[in-house]
C-alpha cells in the first residue's frame, strides 16, 4: 500500500516523452532522482512546497533536463511537484518509520527511472 501511495505521488510528475536521440538513462536518472529528492525533503524537512519545487526545477535546469522531451512545461511540473509534496506530508503518518519511507521512496524512484526510460524509448 505504501509503495502504491508513493507511486501515486511520483506518477503526476512523470510525463509522456518523445523519442529523441539522447542519453535516455541519464535523463531518466536526473529527472527521477531530482523529483525523488524533493519528496524525500518533503518528508524530512519543514521547507515549503514552493521552495522544494523551485529547488527541484533549478536542479533539473542545472543538469540540462529538457522538459520538452518529457512533454511537460515548468508550470505543469511545478503544479505536479507541489501536489506530490503535499501528498507526502499529508500521509507521513502512514509510514511506521523513516526507514520504511526511504525504502518505499527508493523503490518508487527505481520504478520512475524504468517508466521514464520506457516512455522516452516509445515511438
Automatic annotation (TrEMBL):
Protein's name in the database: Uncharacterized protein
Signal peptide: 1-17
Organism of provenance: Providencia rustigianii
Keywords: Signal
Amino acid at each position: 500500500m505504501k509503495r502504491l501511495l508513493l507511486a501515486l505521488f511520483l506518477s503526476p510528475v512523470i510525463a509522456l516523452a518523445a523519442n529523441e536521440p539522447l542519453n535516455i538513462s541519464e535523463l531518466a536518472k536526473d529527472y527521477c532522482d531530482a523529483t525523488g529528492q524533493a519528496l524525500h525533503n518533503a518528508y524530512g524537512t519543514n521547507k515549503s512546497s514552493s521552495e522544494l519545487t523551485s529547488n527541484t526545477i533549478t536542479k533539473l535546469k542545472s543538469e540540462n533536463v529538457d522538459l520538452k522531451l518529457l512533454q511537460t512545461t515548468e508550470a505543469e511540473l511545478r503544479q505536479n511537484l507541489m501536489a506530490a509534496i503535499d501528498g507526502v506530508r499529508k500521509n507521513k503518518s502512514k509510514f511506521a518509520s523513516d526507514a520504511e519511507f526511504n525504502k518505499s521512496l527508493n523503490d518508487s524512484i527505481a520504478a520512475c527511472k524504468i517508466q521514464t526510460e520506457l516512455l522516452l524509448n516509445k515511438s
